[in-house]
Automatic annotation (TrEMBL):
Keyword Transferase: no
First and last residues of every TPR repeat: 103-136, 143-176, 343-376
Protein name: MalT-like TPR region domain-containing protein
Keyword Ligase part of the UniProt annotation: no
Pfam families the record matches: TPR_10 (PF13374), TPR_12 (PF13424), TPR_16 (PF13432)
Gene3D superfamilies listed in its UniProt record: Tetratricopeptide repeat domain
Alphabetical keyword list: TPR repeat
Domain of life: Bacteria
Amino acid sequence: MQKLLRRAASYAARLGDRTSTGLIQCRLGALLRQLGDYAEAEVYLRSSLATHQRHPEEAEYIGWSQYELALLLHDQGDFPLALTCIQQAETQFKECGQERGLARVLDVQGMVYRDQARYAEALRCFEQAIGICVQQGDRLGHARALHNRATAYGALGQYSRAVRDFEESLRLFNELDRPVDQSWVMMDKSAIYILQGKLDLAEQSCQEVLPLFRERHLRRGEALTLRTMGDLYRQKQELQRAHNCYSESWAIFNALGDRMNIALTMYLIGSLFFLEGTYLEARNNYEQAQFLAQESVISYIQGLALAGQGDVAAVLRQFADAERHYREAERLLTGFSLNRERLNILYHLGTLYQTQQRYQEALDTWVQALAVGVEESSTQYRDIQDKVQALVADQHLEAEYRASRNRFNLV
């Protein structure tokens, strides 16, 4: 396919057919993006965009070039620039009344918001995209938006909704004979299986899709599957296998230049070192993840990496550093739908205060944790409740507890 498109682009250019040249360049850029050749993909997509922009009447073609460029920038983790391209594509599609294009742009916008942990905004985009696709009879766009909405539901812990959307997207992709798209869905669904504790099903799905991604040279799919397998083996306490998967995944993301996933994978490698008690290696990976996330304006990964550094500092009894990292991490995560992560940070910060006999601060921090919105049935929530009750009883902090509950609106 790649060779055919290259020949077609060359032939169209020799004929002086600028419109066909731009369309073929866009198609070739899209293919190269899927294969992980981001640098060459960008060259073709920007050339396609420049070709069509010389003819303002080609608003639809300009929109499709900007859409594909937005997808590329998303895959590279350049979210601010991706959102700029999305806005430009939206303007072009509205100008020419291209509803199908609007739906696809909304889908990519949702993907960017999801990967920034802006889940409420992501869900709005996916739902708008689904609505337009159903209205337009765009079954492929409908299936992709369902798949993406499922990943947002999964990130929010709404697993039954996520599985329902995964199943429906798989059904549509099967009817459309789209095996690669089915593999992407199965890979993301395996991540939900891990969160549900269905580790055998997760492993089966990953082992099924990994050979397909490799066979078709879809490097990003291969890297994401390997990282999911790293999560799986970490849950199974097979830490060396987890290391191997994370390392392979990181190497591919690094070769692709996918900044967001490089940072997230380094954070996960750091957390694995922390589990093993290799604290300096853990801190090194957390620091690198934080730097990359800060550079790419991905605040939630920066927050997670800072929390990891706080964990290391606490273990090493560097209490001032630990407190600083935890507080900054909690500040960065405030405003995101990451309540479980915030609960975990506040749990550890409260424990840090208790260790230093700063009981009032420990109490306030744990009461704040109980107010972040995590379901009361969670193990960590119940653990914090127990700690609060014990602390209040041991240190006679009944009045302070009432005041703290009022301050954080904890009913």
